[in-house]
């Protein structure tokens, strides 16, 4: 049994539960994470479910699946879910089969949002994985005038969203040496955005703990705005 | 039939039509009638007396008793008729005081070798022999009674002194214009009529009717002498090419080519499509064994911008008599411009995302989209300096009508105001735009379209679905198949080759739909359907119908994006892109512009009068009559001519002008429409001027044309060599210097035959009655 499988719920059958949108978390292969096997499953499933509650309230015309939904890249039905979300990619180590499936997925029109990884070491791991996955496409910084920051909410500033521990207790917002938040992306040759990388920030925790009275609301507010914009953009472009 | 009539009645029906029937001895009338009456009384009395005898007669014989007196009476009536001297009085011309114009077709088609009566076997040879002036030739027989004037014609008719001046090399033959010109040439002379020697091939662009009316009004009968066979023995002809005048660059052009043949039934030939010397498609066409014509639907990509002359040709076949009619050309303007399409979507969904993605690289399609994300919160995309900005769905006609096409996604009818729904219907019906209705959980019946104006747009029958029924059920595993109409439609051509495309459809991943669309509206056409285990009837997947000037298309699945986003479809596969590019090009094809200019044909003969017709509309597509419209015509030499166009009065917004195209080559017309000094718009069009050889098409003798000319002018069709009939017909003309001529009818064979029949009949009945 692969490391992620023990955490994985049964993937939804899109014919059984018919929705236009499923917030799908990528259950990737990876290194050991804090003695814990699946870094992909950090904040899972609460962050996903809580985000869906907010998302459905804010995008009330979106016909979305209410619950969490995780899939490995090699799942035969992966292509039925053109939106993917990943966290802790500093520990990601894709197998050749996952890499091949994910590459085809992205080039065919899939959209991948990466979140919650920090510092130069974790960035280096992601960069290495992406260089194997999409070697011909560079990672670029997304400017604030990009439509992804304005397609639903107007996001004028990139905030650093801290994890729940530091957010609740008013500690520093950064982790490791990730002092500055970045939103980066990878475009295909037609200029279509395939991957959005939220580095040095943790949107997932802000969704997950949005109801926590100690977690600063401005971070949750921002995280939801970003999340909603990602979904609107993914389903429009 | 005419021969039998002539045998029985002594003269042809034509003479009876022309002449007046009378009795020469009207003084005998009363005496003859009295005598006849007396004889009848005597006959009846004598038969009545005989009737009392024979008690042994059968009942059948009794019933025949009245017949002998009837026969006898009729015999007497016939004799009386003859004694009254029935006579046909005709007006005939005075020999040599009346003229006849002999009008000879001098065109190339007369060189066809299909006139067996001529020594050289050609139509021209037959004419030369008939008009040689040798004893007993038609000309000789005519000249015995008339002053004959010879005329030759191609485009028009002119006098010739002898048949030596005939060349049979003119490029066209305009029969109507030629006959009127011949009539004018001989005006002032006592003219019995015109004799037309022709194969009936008429290349005139104008209808023949006007010329025939002129001749009829002038009292000039035309006698037609047909040349050639009514059917060629072995020939293939490209009879007709129906091509769009304008297409978007990169579109699939669909052209209907009709091929006619004689003597090649069952043969398979290659129909080649050539674009500037490059073969762009070859279609194999098999002629039916029984029929003569077949229509092939040819499709090819128009990838090069500009005015393109596409040539459609069939290689000459062994034994074919005429090769010059094996090709035709069509002028198609390939436009490089962006057709604007408005995509209105009721919810974020992958179908609309991937649809836009599929056409995003198409430079000729500009899809502006408006997607509802939340209640009253829309996300507009692709608006630019050429498009007005608005939020939601347009409320003004000008905003909507600037687009050529509208795609309506998963949006419930209750979202729209009644005016917006009517405006969308008018977009198709009045503006002539294309509306594409996409499947979705809030579309069609599931979106409450039934009973609203939106229902008019749907090519499929809608049903009432109360909203409390909740989420509609998804019909899954729809495997698509082409209908017979879909197998030949350009929208379904997902591969370059038709057969390959038709085989592809059933292999595509199955789709699903919320729509239970199983019934087509009257007049609608389905191109794709699918079987579903969840419904008994086939599901309609793609259908279309006309709405006024425009069209509406329904595509009921909601997840065609699986053809792009699938682990089983290679990344380089273009099926999904091609489907939507073609669908949207089809949606906006033939959508009218606000200002349009069109010549009445795409190709003309040199010297033709070209009628230019412009249509002028304002931003809301209302026709404008008070406009100043000028067409600037750029001739092949580069010289420019301005032609003002005037309101036609017949139709709102229509402006017409004419121009004589002298030079051969390609012409460009740019029309400029203004109202109250403001520019309403500009439109361009092209036409070509070239030798068309029209008369070589349908090159067999056209009896219908010759018959029409003769019957509508009061003349007659005359067989080649029947000079006697021709002279007789011309002699009894109502025109020229005339004298009266009486012809006896009492000796008509029919009278003798009637007498014999009546007497024979009487004798037979009398024998039966035992009275003989």
How would you describe this protein?
The complex is a heterodimer of chains A (237) and B (772). Chain A is an alpha/beta fold and 237 residues long. Chain A is globular, with a radius of gyration of 16 Å. Chain B is of the alpha/beta class and 772 residues long. In chain B, 24% of the residues lie in helices and 32% in strands. Chain B has 18 helices and 35 strands. Chain B has a ten-stranded mixed sheet with strand order 18-17-16-19-20-25-24-23-21-22, sandwiched between helices. In chain B, strands 26-28-31-30-29-32-33-27 form an eight-stranded mixed sheet, with no helix packed on it. In chain B, strand 32 and strand 33 form a beta hairpin. The longest helix of chain B has 24 residues. The relative contact order of chain B is 0.14. The mean pLDDT of chain B is 88. Chains A and B meet through helix 2 and helix 6 of A and helix 10, strand 17 and strand 18 of B.
Helix and strand layout, with pairings?
The complex is a heterodimer of chains A (237) and B (772).
Chain A (H helix, E strand, L loop, with lengths): L23 E3 L19 H13 L10 E3 L11 E5 L8 H13 L2 E5 L3 H15 L5 E3 L22 H5 L13 E6 L5 E7 L3 H6 L8 H18 L3
Chain B lengths: L1 H8 L3 H6 L1 E4 L4 H24 L7 H5 L3 H17 L2 E8 L5 E7 L17 H8 L7 H8 L1 E7 L3 E4 L14 H11 L5 E8 L10 H9 L4 E5 L8 E8 L3 E3 L2 E12 L5 E8 L2 E9 L6 E10 L3 E9 L12 E9 L3 E7 L4 H10 L5 E10 L2 E5 L15 H5 L3 E4 L9 H12 L4 E5 L15 H4 L17 E8 L15 H7 L6 E3 L11 E7 L7 E9 L2 E6 L19 H14 L6 E5 L3 E2 L3 E9 L11 E7 L5 E8 L6 E8 L3 E11 L2 E12 L13 H11 L3 E2 L4 H9 L6 E7 L4 H21 L3
Parallel strand pairs in B: 3-4, 3-6, 6-7, 7-34, 9-15, 16-17, 16-19, 19-20, 20-25, 27-33
Antiparallel strand pairs in B: 1-2, 2-35, 4-5, 8-10, 10-13, 11-12, 11-14, 14-15, 17-18, 21-22, 21-23, 23-24, 24-25, 26-28, 28-31, 29-30, 29-32, 30-31, 32-33
Helix pairs in contact in B: 3-5, 5-18, 7-17, 8-9, 10-15
């Amino acid at each position: 049994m692969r490391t992620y499988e023990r955490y994985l719920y049964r993937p939804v059958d899109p014919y059984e539960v018919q929705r236009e949108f499923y917030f799908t978390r990528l259950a990737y292969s990876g290194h050991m994470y804090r003695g814990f096997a699946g870094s992909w499953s950090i904040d899972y499933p609460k962050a996903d479910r809580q985000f869906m509650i907010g998302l459905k309230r804010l995008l009330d015309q979106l016909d979305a699946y209410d619950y969490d939904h995780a899939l490995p890249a090699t799942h035969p039905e992966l292509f039925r879910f053109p939106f993917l979300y990943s966290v802790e990619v500093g520990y990601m180590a894709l197998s050749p089969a996952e890499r091949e499936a994910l590459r085809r997925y992205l080039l065919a029109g899939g959209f991948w949002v990466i979140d919650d990884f920090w510092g130069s070491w974790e960035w280096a791991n992601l960069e290495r994985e992406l260089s194997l996955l999409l070697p011909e496409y560079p990672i670029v910084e997304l400017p604030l005038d990009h439509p992804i920051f304005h397609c639903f909410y107007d996001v004028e500033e990139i905030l650093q969203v801290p994890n729940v521990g530091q957010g609740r207790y008013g500690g520093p917002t950064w982790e490791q040496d990730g002092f500055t938040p970045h939103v980066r992306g990878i475009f295909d040759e037609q200029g279509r955005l395939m991957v959005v990388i939220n580095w040095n920030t943790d949107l997932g925790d802000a969704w997950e703990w949005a109801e926590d009275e100690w977690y600063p609301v401005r971070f949750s507010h921002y995280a939801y705005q970003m999340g909603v914009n990602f979904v609107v953009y993914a389903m429009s472009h | 039939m005419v021969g039998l009539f002539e045998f029985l009645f002594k003269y042809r029906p034509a003479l009876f039509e022309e002449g007046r029937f009378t009795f020469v001895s009207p003084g005998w009338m009363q005496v003859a009638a009295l005598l006849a009456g007396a004889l009848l009384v005597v006959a009846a009395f004598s038969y009545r007396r005989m009737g009392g005898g024979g008690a042994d007669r059968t009942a059948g014989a009794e019933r025949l008793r009245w017949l002998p007196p009837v026969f006898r009476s009729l015999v007497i009536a016939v004799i009386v008729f003859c004694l009254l001297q029935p006579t046909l009085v005709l007006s005939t011309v005075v020999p040599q005081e009346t003229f006849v114009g002999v009008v000879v077709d001098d065109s190339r088609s007369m060189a066809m070798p299909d006139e067996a009566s001529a020594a050289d076997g050609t139509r021209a040879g037959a004419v030369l022999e008939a008009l040689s002036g040798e004893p007993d030739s038609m000309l000789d027989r005519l000249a015995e009674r008339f002053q004959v004037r010879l005329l030759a014609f191609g485009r028009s008719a002119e006098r010739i002194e002898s048949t030596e001046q005939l060349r049979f090399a003119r490029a066209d033959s305009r029969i109507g214009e030629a006959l009127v010109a011949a009539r004018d040439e001989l005006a002032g002379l006592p003219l019995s009529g015109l004799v037309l020697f022709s194969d009936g091939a008429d290349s005139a662009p104008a209808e023949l009717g006007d010329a025939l009316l002129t001749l009829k009004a002038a009292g000039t009968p035309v006698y037609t002498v047909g040349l050639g066979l009514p059917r060629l023995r072995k020939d293939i002809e490209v009879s007709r090419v129906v091509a769009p005048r304008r297409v978007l660059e990169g579109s699939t052009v669909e052209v209907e080519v009709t091929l006619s043949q004689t003597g090649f039934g069952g043969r398979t030939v290659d129909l080649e499509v050539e674009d500037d010397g490059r073969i762009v498609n070859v279609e194999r066409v098999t002629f039916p064994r029984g029929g003569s014509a077949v229509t092939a639907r040819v499709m090819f990509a128009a990838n090069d911008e500009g005015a393109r002359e596409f040539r459609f040709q069939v290689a000459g076949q062994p034994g074919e008599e005429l090769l010059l009619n094996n090709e035709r050309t069509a002028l198609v303007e390939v436009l490089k411009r962006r057709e604007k399409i408005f995509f209105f979507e009721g919810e974020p969904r992958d179908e609309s995302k991937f649809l836009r993605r599929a056409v995003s690289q198409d430079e000729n399609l500009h899809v502006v989209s408006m997607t509802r994300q939340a209640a009253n919160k829309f996300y507009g995309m692709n608006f630019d300096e050429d498009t007005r900005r608005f939020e939601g769905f347009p409320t003004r006609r000008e905003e909507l009508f600037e687009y050529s096409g509208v795609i309506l996604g998963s949006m419930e009818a209750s979202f729209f105001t009644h005016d917006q729904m009517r405006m969308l219907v008018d977009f198709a019906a009045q503006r002539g735009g294309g509306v594409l209705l996409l499947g979705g959980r809030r579309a069609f019946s599931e979106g409450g379209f039934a009973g609203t104006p939106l229902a008019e747009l749907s090519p499929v029958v809608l049903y009432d679905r109360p909203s409390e029924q909740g989420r509609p059920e998804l019909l899954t595993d729809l495997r698509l198949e082409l209908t017979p109409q879909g197998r030949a439609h350009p929208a379904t051509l997902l591969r370059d080759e038709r057969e390959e495309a038709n085989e592809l459809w059933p292999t595509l991943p199955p789709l699903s739909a919320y729509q239970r669309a199983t019934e087509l509206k009257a007049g609608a056409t389905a191109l794709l359907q699918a079987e579903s285990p969840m419904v008994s009837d086939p599901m309609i997947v793609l259908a279309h119908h006309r709405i006024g000037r425009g069209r509406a298309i329904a595509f009921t699945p909601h997840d065609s994006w699986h053809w792009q986003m699938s682990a089983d479809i290679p990344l380089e596969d273009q099926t999904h892109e091609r489907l939507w590019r073609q669908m949207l090009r089809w949606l906006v094809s033939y959508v009218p512009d606000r200002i349009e200019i069109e010549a009445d044909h795409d190709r003309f003969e040199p010297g033709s009068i070209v009628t230019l017709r412009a249509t002028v509309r304002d931003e809301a597509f209302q026709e404008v009559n008070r406009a100043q419209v000028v067409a600037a015509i750029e001739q092949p030499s580069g010289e420019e001519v301005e032609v003002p166009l005037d309101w036609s009065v017949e139709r709102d917004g229509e402006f017409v002008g004419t121009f004589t195209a002298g030079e051969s080559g390609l012409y460009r017309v740019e029309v400029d429409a203004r109202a109250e000094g403001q520019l309403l718009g500009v439109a361009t069009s092209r036409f070509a001027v070239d030798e068309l050889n029209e008369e070589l098409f349908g090159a067999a003798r056209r009896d219908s044309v010759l018959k029409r000319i003769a019957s509508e002018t009061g003349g007659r069709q005359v067989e080649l060599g029947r000079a006697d009939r021709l002279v007789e017909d011309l002699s009894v003309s109502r025109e020229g210097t005339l004298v009266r001529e009486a012809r006896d009818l009492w000796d008509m064979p029919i009278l003798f035959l009637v007498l014999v029949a009546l007497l024979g009949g009487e004798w037979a009945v009398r024998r039966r009655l035992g009275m003989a």
